[in-house]
Amino acid sequence: MESARHMQDHWDVYQKGADQLTRDLFSLFSKVPESFKKQYQEVSADTVKSAQDLFYSLLGNIVNNVSSLILGVLLTMLYTLFWLCSPVPMDSSVDVMFRKYIMFKTLACFGYGISAGLLLYFLSVDLASVFALTTFALNFVPEVGPFIAMVLPCPVIILDSRIERPMLVLFVAIIGQLALKFAFSNIIEVKLIESDKKLRMHPVMILLSVGVFGYLWGPTGMLLSVPLMALMKIALFSELVPSSYRDPILVILEGDRNAPRKHGLKALPRITDARWPERV
């Protein structure tokens, strides 16, 4: 809410940046026909006006529905708190696995969000604290969320007329966030989560599970995609699942041909009918 008012108070700064961007594009395409320049100028002016109208409309909707938004956030926080403190009855191994995933994921998201916010702050990007919060929240969505968080500051950087070299700042911000994403998602988070073998999973399977569970249950499904897939892996370790089915599924989920051996699994003994001799 406060961030939306901040942008409204400094809208002239971004409008000035949009005008500067238009002039830069004109100088870049100085040799194009005059008719094209005129059409581009009209389109750019309409785009800025439409963006301003859209922002004011969104701000009005936020103000009108702020009570329902606060209530929804509080209910979500209370639900998550009660779920973590008093989870539904389930097997102890599943309970521990869910708690570990939420704890490890929260630590990685918090570190990534703080680091991204500090990067944008030192680059003098407006609303750095807001982008840090959105990065923290979006990073809970595996693989997809961090890239969405990287794109969000781009319009603010490009249109902020107070930044002398916006394209350079944009380049540094993108490269810096990519480096942070690699460090936290591919190294720190992997080391934390894969310390539990049941949570180990190939990135392609993570993307697939995010898409499937996100389609079914929205953001909640995206958040729970990895622990739900881990729950499927736990079910594979049951004695009722033959190794002929279990081992290929483990190889597919982890992307490792040696996955069954790493879990210390052995093939189940063959069951033969006592009435018929086993062929050699």
Task: Summarize the structure in words.
The protein has 14 helices and no strands. It is mainly α and 280 residues long. Helix 2 (11-28) packs antiparallel against helix 3 (34-64) and helix 6 (128-138) packs antiparallel against helix 7 (145-151). The chain is elongated. The protein has 3 domains: 1-86, no CATH class; 92-197, no CATH class; 198-262, no CATH class. The relative contact order is 0.08. It has helices spanning 2-9, 11-28, 34-64, 66-85, 92-122, 128-138, 145-151, 153-159, 166-193, 203-217, 219-223, 225-236, 243-254, 259-262.
Q: Uncertain segments of ≥5 residues (pLDDT<50)?
A: 268-280
Structural class of the helices, strands and pairings?
mainly alpha
Strand percentage, roughly? under 5%
Question: What coarse outline follows from CA principal-axis ratios?
Answer: elongated
Report the order of strands and helices: HHHHHHHHHHHHHH
What's the number of extended β-strand segments?
A: 0
Radius of gyration: 26 Å
Quickly count the domains.
Answer: 3
What summary fits the major beta sheet?
Answer: none
Terminus-to-terminus distance: 76 Å
Task: Give the mean pLDDT.
Answer: 72
Helix content: over 70%
List its traits.
mainly alpha; 3 domains
Gist?
The protein has 14 helices and no strands. The protein is an all-alpha fold and 280 residues long.
Layout: helices, strands, pairs:
Elements lengths: L1 H8 L1 H18 L5 H31 L1 H20 L6 H31 L5 H11 L6 H7 L1 H7 L6 H28 L9 H15 L1 H5 L1 H12 L6 H12 L4 H4 L18
Helix pairs in contact: 2-3, 5-6, 5-9, 5-12, 6-7, 7-9, 8-9
